[in-house]
């Protein structure tokens, strides 16, 4: 039988160093990191194997690895590593590498590697919004126009909201297909029966809307209520709040924009209130994560890549400008003032959507539950192939 050749790639080592701060070269493979990791299992002992694969430059093996997505950066591995090799940070860097590997356009790779590329990309998208706005609504509202006439919600939907929704859908779907090719189809893996795709689909929805694995970062014996009271769930719950707020607001602006522009919001109060709470959630979540990143008190916030900062800042500014816009409508500011506040809001919102969602930090919200789903598919198929389905280890 012909022996499979190991393919190494020295560029990978350079890239991982550029997109994170792990000292993976210091690792001497003691295995402590995998032993203390609350999320690692016997079958998939991360992050130790990723440390060695990275050191060897095994790019293809890493590109087909789902385990970096199963790590939630709780930091136990880094805290206990005797060599200070920062394995948790390596898993973070590998997630950046994987985002670039799934992205066939090559944009993610550039954004992660070059700080200024992200600033330039944001500026280009903001400028594009300005040009499109000028073409659709002009550079100032007509005298005496109402807000609905100056900034027609139908035109916002037609020229801004729906094109961006289609763009994001197409991009993310194609990247996730690429991920599927690399992690599930490649490498002569087990054949997955069609019905397993359906029977395991619950884990995709469940993990997207609960981010349940975050809660397992603390594997102490304490009861859930004690963990809640002592703040051990704070990071998980704030992350969840941020994600749900984001999804609610996105759905709000795409499907109910006219209601947001209505000066009398009483007929739509139920949905408007829902979105007010989501705006508060967005502001609270972004401020919480900015403070954590500034104070660096917990392991997972010790290192911040420029893309981490840009994401949280853009999200904060999007929330803030959205609140100012809504307040300017409710408190009857002059139409010309609202017109420009609206434009500024879109010039912040669109770079956040176009750059962050498919190509940068936001995408991990999509890849994580998908990776858990793919890992479940593989586990389940493996156990079925072995005729041993009752022993299948399903991840949550
Ligand atoms: S604990 Fe540190 S030195 Fe030991 S295997 Fe993990 S990364 Fe390497
Ligand atoms: S950061 Fe936490 S979840 Fe990730 S590998 Fe280390 S110990 Fe495991």
Can you tag this structure with a few keywords?
396 residues; mainly alpha; Fumarate Reductase Iron-sulfur Protein, Chain B, domain 2; 2 domains; disordered C terminus; binds iron/sulfur cluster
| Largest sheet: number of strands, sense, barrel closure | none
Number of helices: 21
Strand content: under 5%
Q: What structural category characterises the helix and strand content? A: mainly alpha
Count of all domains:
2
- Run of helices and strands: HHHHHHHHHHHHHHHHHHHHH
Helix percent band: 55-70%
Low-pLDDT windows of residues: 389-396
| Ends apart, CA distance between termini | 38 Å
Residue-averaged pLDDT, rounded? 88
Cα Rg: 23 Å
Give the total of beta strands: 0
Q: What spatial form do the alpha-carbon principal axes imply?
A: globular
Distinct bound molecules: iron/sulfur cluster
How does this model look, in words?
Helices cover 69% and strands 0% of the residues. By secondary structure, the protein is mainly alpha-helical. It has helices spanning 10-18, 32-36, 48-56, 59-63, 67-70, 76-80, 87-102, 107-113, 115-137, 147-150, 153-185, 194-199, 201-210, 212-215, 224-229, 234-255, 257-261, 269-295, 306-330, 335-359, 364-385. The chain has 21 helices and no strands. The longest helix has 33 residues, at 153-185. It has two domains: 10-102, Fumarate Reductase Iron-sulfur Protein, Chain B, domain 2, CATH 1.10.1060; 107-374, no CATH class. Residues 389-396 have low confidence and may be disordered. One iron/sulfur cluster is lined by residues 27-33, 48, 51, 81-83, 85, 87. One iron/sulfur cluster binds next to helix 2 and helix 3.
């Amino acid at each position: 039988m012909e022996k499979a050749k190991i393919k190494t790639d020295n560029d990978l080592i350079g890239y991982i160093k550029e997109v994170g701060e792990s000292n993976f070269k210091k690792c001497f493979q003691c295995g402590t990191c995998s032993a203390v990791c609350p999320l690692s299992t016997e079958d998939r002992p991360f992050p130790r194997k990723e440390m060695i694969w990275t050191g060897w430059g095994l790019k293809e093996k890493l590109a087909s690895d789902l385990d970096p997505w199963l790590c939630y950066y709780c930091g136990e591995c880094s805290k206990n590593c005797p060599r200070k090799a920062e394995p948790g940070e390596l898993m973070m860097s590998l997630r950046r590498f994987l985002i670039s590997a799934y992205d066939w356009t090559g944009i993610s790779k550039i954004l992660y590697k070059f700080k200024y590329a992200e600033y330039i990309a944001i500026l280009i998208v903001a400028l594009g919004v300005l040009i499109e706005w000028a073409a659709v609504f002009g550079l100032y509202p007509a005298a005496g126009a109402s807000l609905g006439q100056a900034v027609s919600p139908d035109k916002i939907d037609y020229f801004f909201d729906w094109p961006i929704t289609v763009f994001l859908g197409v991009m993310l779907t194609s990247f996730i297909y690429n991920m599927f090719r690399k992690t599930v189809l490649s490498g002569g893996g087990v054949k997955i029966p069609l019905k397993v795709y359906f029977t395991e689909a619950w884990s995709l929805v469940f993990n997207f809307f609960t981010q349940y694995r975050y809660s397992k970062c603390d594997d102490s014996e304490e009861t859930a209520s004690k963990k809640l009271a002592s703040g051990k769930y704070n990071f998980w719950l704030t992350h969840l709040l941020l994600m749900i707020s984001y999804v609610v607001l996105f759905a709000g602006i795409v499907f109910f924009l006219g209601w947001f522009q209505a000066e009398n919001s009483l007929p739509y109060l139920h949905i408007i209130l829902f979105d007010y709470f989501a705006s508060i959630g967005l502001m609270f979540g972004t401020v919480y994560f900015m403070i954590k990143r500034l104070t660096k008190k917990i392991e997972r916030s010790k290192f911040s890549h420029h893309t981490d900062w840009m994401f949280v800042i853009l999200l904060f500014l999007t929330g803030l400008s959205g609140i100012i816009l809504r307040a300017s409508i409710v408190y009857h500011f002059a139409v010309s003032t609202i017109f420009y506040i609206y434009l500024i809001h879109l010039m912040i919102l669109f770079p956040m959507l176009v750059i962050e969602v498919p190509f940068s930090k936001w995408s991990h919200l999509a890849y994580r539950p998908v990776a858990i789903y793919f890992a479940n598919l593989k586990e389940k198929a493996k156990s079925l192939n072995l005729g041993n389905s009752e022993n299948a280890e399903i991840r949550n």
